[in-house]
Amino acid sequence: MRPGAAGPAIHALIICLALGAGALYCLWQAIKAMRTGRAVRDTPTSRVRSAAQGYVELHGRGRLLDGSQTRAPLTHLPCTWWSFKIEELDERGRRRSWNVVSSDTSQTPFLLDDGTGTCIVDPRGAQVFGARKITWYGDSPQPLIHLPAGTLIEKIVESVFHGRYRYTELRLDVDSPLYGIGAFRSVGGVEVADVEGDAVRLLRDWKRDQPALLRRFDTNRDGSIDAREWEAARIAARAQVQREAAQRPVAPIQNVLEDPGDGRAFLLAQEDATNLERRFTRRIAAGLGGFVLGAAVLGWYLQQV
């Protein structure tokens, strides 16, 4: 290598790595969009009342749980789900950028009601699409005004009033259409008791109090529990476990939609499946286009160096 050539060579290597990484990232995003779009397209719509346990697609309306008063933190408007971000303008000469000061996302459960039943939605881990988005500006770390729901006011404030801080809020509105795809399960109802296991644990408790055990089951009064007497104790323990299980109150059945936790998509949207499919089709096209463009630029650059 000629003296002084190391610098340009390292610079060229960095550019090649950046172009290659960018192309691969675009390809990965396209693959992810393909997988998610296929899940939306291939998963049939279920009704809450008859949905099978497992991976399902539901359509309904978003409702609040009884007693819930969920409100978006910045606008204070009622909603089923929210996410917000507050950014501060950083100006250094001609360079302008927005740095995140604070952000948060709702984790409060809410309801999906499709007319046949209700399902509790646990939004943790969900990708949310079609949420109502509002952005405005101010001069304090927290907004001093809370915008009304009128879209004209929002647009005027967004386009005219600027400040050092930028506030962005996303909301899923109460009673708005709600699409969900994820893991569906039902909890509560009649509980299946582990009779044998509970009986063994009960016998273990009885054995700790030997005098009481002998008084109850030592029928021949020889000071020990023989095989016949121990079998009687087992029968009594099983009977007690069964009586206690029958007396327990039956919990109401609750349906829950949540993150599958196995890599499959968990989506919530304030729109229908058709619009979601279009979203992912555009993402696939953008990802593949970025990959082809990045690979082409990388190939051209390698021919120049």
Describe the structure.
A hairpin with a 4-residue loop joins strand 5 (110-113) and strand 6 (118-121). This protein has helices at residues 6-42, 151-160, 195-208, 210-217, 227-247, 273-304; strands spanning 45-46, 54-63, 81-92, 95-105, 110-113, 118-121, 127-129, 132-138, 165-172, 177-189, 251-258, 267-269. The protein has a five-stranded mixed barrel with strand order 2-5-6-11-10. Helix 1 (6-42) packs antiparallel against helix 6 (273-304). It contains six helices and twelve strands. The mean pLDDT is 84. The chain has three domains: 1-42 and 272-305; 64-188 and 262-271, no CATH class; 191-249, no CATH class. It is 40% helix and 28% strand. It has 305 residues and is of the alpha+beta class.
Please give the share of residues in helix: 40-55%
- What is the residue-averaged pLDDT? 84
Number of domains: 3
Tally of contiguous helical segments: 6
Q: Taking strands numbered 1, 2, ... along the chain, how are they ordered across the largest sheet?
A: 2-5-6-11-10
Unreliable spans: none
Number of strands: 12
Which percent band covers the strand fraction? 25-35%
The oligomeric status of these chains comes to single chain
Secondary-structure element series: HEEEEEEEEHEEHHHEEH
SSE class: alpha+beta
Largest sheet: 5 strands, mixed, barrel
Global outline: elongated
Kindly provide the radius of gyration, computed on alpha-carbon positions and rounded to a whole number of angstroms: 31 Å
Separation, N- and C-terminal Cα atoms: 14 Å
